[in-house]
Amino acid sequence: MKPATATLFLLLAPLALAQDAEITFKSTEISSGIYMVEAEGGFGGGNMAILAGDKHVAMIDDGLPPLAPKLLDHVTETVGRPIEFMVNTHVHGDHAGGNAHFAESGTVVFAHDNIRKRLLADSTGAGGPGGLPVVTFGDGVTFHLDNVEARVIHVPTAHTDGDAFIYFPKANVIHTGDVLFHALFPYIDLTSGGTVDGYIAAQKAILDLADDDTKIIPGHGALTNKAGMQADHAMLVAGQVAVKALVDQGMSEDEAVAANPLAEYADDFNWGFIDAERMTRTIYKDLTAGN
Question: What is the pLDDT of residues 268-283, one digit of tens each?
């Protein structure tokens, strides 16, 4: 199994029943022309967004492959127009899984160069070959959708090696992609180019753009603000320090896990896919990579 495929199935296997669940979608307008799109009734992928200008409509991410028809129906009904442009925040199938279905309806998919490279090797996470990005970017790209400006900004070696977050300066809204799992231990995909240092740096870049009134759409978790994201960021920074202290003592990975360095965060940040043990292992592996 290719690494990208393995990552996809690691993400989706525990949530396979979502395909049979009565999942629906809801859209909430959080600023003029900007909607946060969430799944209800089961796991339907990461948080998405719609950008509806006077003439043009774009979307950020498109959920899981099996739910793409239902999602497309929902978002086109919400804005009353087709989705012209799609921006993928990263390569995983719970964010890019609807690419192929949306592309069939005429949507043009934008993504970082590394996302297309990974999907060329294995397009499963985009719903098949039809889901490959048509337009790619390096450092970023800016959309000018009539009254809505969206700056797509690449952050290297963070959640993966192809991450981007989207900043709406006039609206004071940021969609983080999976550079933020709000009130959850984050998944940092070391096999797809992610690093803990890069993840921390990406979060800092977002926080530097935010103010106390910024609305922040995380890749997973509830809508939050700068204070909420700062708490998530502080947890990861402190967690890395705690695990590094054990590495510096010469502990093995299993010994570090047994020491339970993230115990104080477990009650607040554990969830079904990443708990304190797995977060510890991720940080440990990242710190000792190449040793």
Answer: 999 999 999 999 999 9
